[in-house]
Amino acid sequence: MKSARIAVIAGLILVLAEAGWWAAKNRPPRANVQTPVSQAPPAPAKPVPAAVNASASSATLIPTAASPGAPTVNNAVANSGSATGPDTEERLGPFSLSGTDYILVLSKKKRPAGSTQESGTTVTAMEIRDSAGTLVYKRIFPYQPDETEFSDAWSVSAGLLSGTNGTGLLVTYDQDSEPSAPEPEPSGWYQVFGIVNGKLRPFSGPILVQGDILQPDNRSKIYKTAGPLDAHSDALNFKVWAHHFRMVYPVRIDWSQGKLSPAPPCDKGSDAAGKTCRYGVLPESDRRAGDLTFVQLCPEASPCDRPERVVVKKDSTLELLSCVPDVKWEEGRVSSPAGSNPMDDQGGISVGTENLQLLVRIDGKQGWMHTDEDFNALGLPFEQ
Amino acid sequence: MGKSKLICRAALLMLFSIPCWGQQRVVVDPRSTPETGATLQSIEQNLGPFTIAGQSFTIALENRRIAGTTAGALVQTLEKLEVREQSGHVLYQKTFPYKLQGNHFQEVITASARLLPGDNLTGLLITYSRQPAAPGTEQSWQVFGFRDGKMALFDPPGPEPAMNVPPGFAGVVMITPNGPRTLPTPMRGPLDTVELRAWTGNFFVIVPLRVDWRAGKLLPGERCLESGGGPGLHEVGCYMRVEAERVPVGADLQFARIFPTTEEQASMSVQHAVIPKGAEVQLLKAKSIATWMTDGDLMRVQFRDLWLKVLVNNNTDNEGWIHGEQDLTAIGLPARSPYQ
Fold first, then answer.
1. Which residues in chain A have their CB less than 8 angstroms from residue B252's CB?
2. Is the separation of the CB atoms in A208 and A174 below 8 Å?
3. What is the pLDDT of residue A79?
4. Residue A262: how many CB atoms within 10 A of its CB?
5. Across the interface, do B268 and A373 touch by the CB < 8 Å criterion?
6. Do A372 and B326 touch (CB under 8 A)?
7. Mind spelling out the 3-state secondary structure of A128-146?
8. Over the stretch B166-180, which tens digit does the pLDDT of each residue have?
């Protein structure tokens, strides 16, 4: 009896073992599940000049060890945008300044399609971090996934800014809003960062310009200044839309003080009240040349009672020499935006529509033009 | 023999005493020899007779002429004008002082006259011309008609603000977005509209003038008002017919700014027309605010905000309004005396 019991138990054990072996051999293959690369808790945030946008989404920032420039799937984003697809991250850099590397980390989401069915992504946050991963600067951009008519998308780019007396980082911000009317020149923001007292800091608020940075070689990834102004400063030239032509507006970069200011080419020795600042003008390729017309030219920059009427033929030689516009410079705030507007700290370069004076040479005849009527007669571009 | 001699002498006396209607009579007046040494002649001239309401009137002109000079612009001027009845009785007299400058007059005045026919009655229009003259003073006028049974000078039109158009003024036109519209104001007595050919400084325009025969008063022929740009109505220019002769321009090319409307503010759509020498330029119409002024018992008209509509070389791209001295000169209408 006893031996029979032992034999039954042994037999059961054998059967169970064989069953287990058979199950292990024939189970389906396990799925390839991606796991977060690093689960290290976020480093405690250090006090930085840029305040976090209080109304932005509550995304948790997770430093990753992914190679620079490679998008990373982030499954731990704690926001309600799941219907818009997964978030992505892009890294720009590293940019070396005074022996320290800095990278820009861009958080992105899928762009709302809007009525024009746009595609692509929009930046929702930008961070500048040093090589230790320390957050140095941050800017939040709004995201409106439920917008059905308009599609707004933010983009951020960056590059080293190389000057004679210093080197910095130039960050550009662009907002593409569709549908929108065409403009002669697109608008964007430009912000210079540099090392002051050992720390990376912005030199001004983002400067809004309808135009662009003027560069000797647009293909280069390194921005270059236009030359030194003194022992501590370099000039950075902007192309600025002036309602009928594109003018050159120089800005002073003071590397030692960490400051931007205008560097207008004004008459030397004039007092502040009577100073005339004459700016360069870029050649205009978008001119509508008619058969035969005339323009009215004055000998001086100020309007005259009886301007000379000069004929302009379709093949006339036209040179845009310089201009005296009413230009306004605003530095903006160095601290980050505090409200819901991501650019409420902005500065800008803007040109008034009144008192616009343009020096031209037409078939060798030189003089000043003042009126929209003459700008249009010459076939220069205009704003709709 | 004595009797026939008497008859001959009487006949000769009558022959020389009868006035020469429409002819000039030259009398040398040695007393008027000036300090400059020039000798002045008195030239008498009669205009008419003009028949009004069955009565006959003449205009007697007494001119001063510098003797020994050939016909020129400043060698003869009007010194006195008289309106006379058929009996010779002087109803009206006006003198014009003159001043010599070397061998010519500093300023010369001439006068002409014509009947002013209306639907109701007829008057007499005297036109005075002055040269050289400041712009706007080249011409002046007087209108004579029957007033209280007698031939008398009519009151000239007075300046009236646009906001205070008198009742019964039947010549008010309101410019609306849909075009001009005559305001329905009641007529006041028998009014006739006559036309004067007035010099603007660059060309002639035909200006209407209203005649109130009963009151012996003249009124502006037309006033054009517009709303907008402030409370109430404000005066804008009226359209007028143009009479002009363009003078040849020297340069091969001329330039004119052609506007779509008579407003300088619409500068964005101004056409810059290049006008070659010999181009055909049609003068379509003028627009201006005509303001009547008085100079003693003479009346003048001044033109403010003067515009001229033109069509160059039958090209509708070059059809529109021009204004200002530079553009009027470009099309061959420079500022000048109407007597050049």
1. none
2. no
3. 37
4. 15
5. yes
6. no
7. EEECCCCEEEEEECCCCCC
8. 444 445 666 666 666
Burial category of A268 from C-beta neighbours within 10 Å (exposed 0-12, middle 13-18, buried 19 and up): exposed
Q: Chain centroid to CA B22: how far?
A: 22
The string of pLDDT tens digits covering residues A319-332 is 999 999 999 999 99
Which residues of A lie closer than 8 Å to B, measured between beta carbons? 292-295, 306, 309, 311, 371-373, 376-377
Minimal Cβ distance to A306: which of B257, B272, B326: B326
CB contact residues (below 8 A), chain B span 79-138, against chain A:
none
Residue B45 DSSP label: E
Residues of A in contact with B267 (CB under 8 A): 371-373
Query: Alpha-carbon distance A276 to A302, whole Å?
Result: 11
Nearest to A371 among B255, B267, B274 (CB): B267
Q: Which residues does chain B have within 8 Å of residue A292's beta carbon, measured at their own beta carbons? A: 274
CA dihedral in degrees (A214, A215, A216, A220; nearest 10)?
-160
Put simply, whether B251 touches A (Cβ < 8 Å) is no
Q: How far is CA B340 from the centre of its chain?
A: 16
User: Among residues A144, A152, A163, A154, which one has the least CA distance to residue A189?
Assistant: A154
* Facing B255 at nearest CB: one of A294, A372, A373: A294
CA distance B124 to B113: 7
- What is the identity of the amino acid at B208? P
Whether A373 and B257 lie within 8 Å, measured CB to CB: yes
pLDDT tens for each residue of B238-252: 999 999 999 988 889
Asked if the Cβ–Cβ distance from A377 to B272 is below 8 Å, we say: yes
Q: What is the spatial distance between Cα A292 and Cα A377, in angstroms, rounded to a whole number?
A: 10
Indicate the Cα dihedral angle B274, B280, B282, B287, nearest 10°. Answer: 30
Strands B108-117 vs B24-28: parallel, antiparallel or unpaired = unpaired
Q: Which residues of A touch B257 (CB under 8 A)?
A: 373
Q: Which amino acid would we find at residue B266?
A: A
Nearest to B267 among A292, A293, A372 (CB): A372
For B273, phi and psi rounded to 5 degrees?
-95, 130
Q: How far is residue A362's CA from residue A321's CA, in Å, rounded to a whole number?
A: 11
- Say how many CB pairs under 8 Å bridge A and B: 24
How close, in Å, is residue B258 to chain A by CA atoms? 11
Q: Which residues pair with A166 in a beta bridge?
A: none
In this prediction, the residues of chain B whose per-residue pLDDT falls under 70 are 1-36, 71-73, 159-190, 229, 266-268, 340
Q: By C-alpha distance, which of B291, B74, B306 is closest to B203? A: B306
> B287, B238 in Cβ contact below 8 A?
yes
pLDDT for residue A169 = 97
Smallest Cβ distance to A376: which of B255, B268, B274? B268
pLDDT above 50 (res A44): no
Beta bridge partners of A161: A168, A223
Contact between chains at A372 and B272 (C-beta distance less than 8 A): no
Distance CA B202, CA B138 (A): 12
The pLDDT tens digits for A291-315 are 899 999 999 998 999 999 999 999 9
Q: DSSP alpha helices (H): ranges in chain A?
A: 2-26, 372-377
Q: Which structure tokens are listed for A269? A: 């020795």
> Coil, strand, or helix at residue B176?
strand
**CB-nearest partner of B272 from A293, A306, A372:** A293
The distance of B99 to chain A (nearest Cα, Å) reads 36
> Which pair of structure tokens corresponds to residue B34?
């000036």
Contacts of A69 (CB under 8 A, 6+ apart): A90, A91, A92
Contacts of B253 in chain A (CB under 8 A): 311
Burial A224-258 (b: 16+ CB within 10 A, else e): bbbeebeeebbbbbbbbbbbbbbbbbbbbbbbeeb
Query: Taking the alpha carbons of B328, B331, B334, B339 in that order, is the dihedral positive or negative?
Result: negative
